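step: validate -> pass
step: tokenize input -> pass
step: predict -> running
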Amino acid sequence: MSAANWLQLAVLVVLLAISIPILGGYLAKVFGGGHAPGDRVFLPVERLVYRIGRIDPEREQRWTVYAYSVLAFSLVGTLLLYGLQRLQTVMPLNPTHAPRIGEALSFNTAVSFVTNTNWQSYYPETTVSHFTNMAGLAVQNWVSPAVGLAVAIALIRGLTRRRSDTIGNFWVDLTRGITRVFLPIGFVVAIVFLSQGVVQNLHGFDVIRTLEGHRQVIPGGPGASQEVIKMLGTNGGGFWNANSAHPFSNPNGFTNFLQIYLLSVIGFSLTYTYGKLVGDRKQGYVLLAVMVTIWIVIAGLGTMFEANGNPKVAHLGVNQRATSTQAGGNTEGKEIRNGVSGSTIFAAATTGTSTGAVNSMHDSYTPLGGLMPLLHMQFGEVSPGGVGVGLNGILILALLSVFIAGLMVGRTPEYLGKKIQATEVKLVVLYTVAMPFAVLVGAGIAIVVPSVLHVSIWNPGPHGFSEVLYAFTSAANNNGSAFAGITANTQFLNIALGIAMLIGRFVLIIPTLAIAGSLARKERVPASAGTFPTNTPLFAALLLGVTVIVAGLTFFPALALGPIVEQQRI
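step: predict -> pass
step: emit ->
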């Protein structure tokens, strides 16, 4: 990488290091009970919401009621968004004359945005009206990450409470996440985006004549307001098809840097929140260390593979080294204003979370370069993962790690003084196998379906398999990014990927809440000589090893059929 790129990475790391204790501490105060910053401003708003929704903020819920609330809220959101798409031709604010969206695509899109996946099997500029964008998609961009954040807070309560039948109130957690976290930050950053040239209007298409005399159609729309929450809430759904590679969405190097920061900051900060709420900051530092290690390795290897260029081009005698006159490396599918490292770091950040926004086409990466973002998702998106769900994922792996450690020393495993017994282990196993099941079974079925083989896959052979594997990995991890060389807007893929999204969201959330409820009912046991400490570098190494081994054993055969064998053919 050039000196400028190293500087950008260093500034990102420093800025995150400064932000994590500040934002993490703020989140701990917001969800820790008692007084929190901004009460004078936010409490009247929240009381009004509770009054309208007939919510008793003092009444807490058992884990089952909390789960029912999550499911009911998500179901209503899905139905409303589905209806908006089907009826958008009779709704206002449709300057582009977007047509009524078909049943399968409406199902896929509704599920996608409600599950925080934001996978888009369509061209946003011509398919979705401004009204559907603002009243449907953008609303889910704000509320779906708040759902994930609420579930993470519920899991932390389960770990910290003793002999408690409740884990909080979903409606209160949801409201506080929106009013105190996403809206204030989003409002400020949206103004910053506007100042940098991100488009925000209610226009349709403007037709102009270029200096060469050609006709060009320029799309308009409410971009900045959606852009900020697509990154901050780890959503990823773009207002324009090229997503963060589009200059209307991501105009310059500063906005590119800001987007990487936004999509990472809450996920990393939640480790500090966790440490504060459990009363042991070292517990949070252990999780943060594992997240950062995975992130740096994926970003570093991805940058290395892409900076070395395309081997096939090198065989033709083309010099792909960075010089004063050329960017160097494999620049296919990348914006020159971002460069190789600006693209690969963005790719690592977006697939390490459940964001799915892209500023380069992952399909155009070299085989091993494309392997990195694919593998990053297959770790379970725990580095740092989506808002809330990333912390959930790494805590579930922590429970699995202490179970393995308990087997080693011949004791019942403990985590934060809570015994991890058969009930929790069964739920951990369900959580661990749900995502791989959706990915591998879904991809295995898809590659023998005629519409996928003859319509969806543009590239035969291992790369085509990689495209299908990436699609199901993205859907089941609620990511939303894609290898671009696949036509996903078919009835089969719209439905199959939608099902994978539902599994990746709710078949993971329900066990998480069940674990929270089970642990909340338990009494703490005092540490003994046989207790495996979970706030040490040794446990961090064990947790990292378990994370890598689980993903490796699960996905290596599939990866060997895709990007690995493709690399061998070069």
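step: describe -> The longest strand covers residues 205-209.
step: cleanup -> pass
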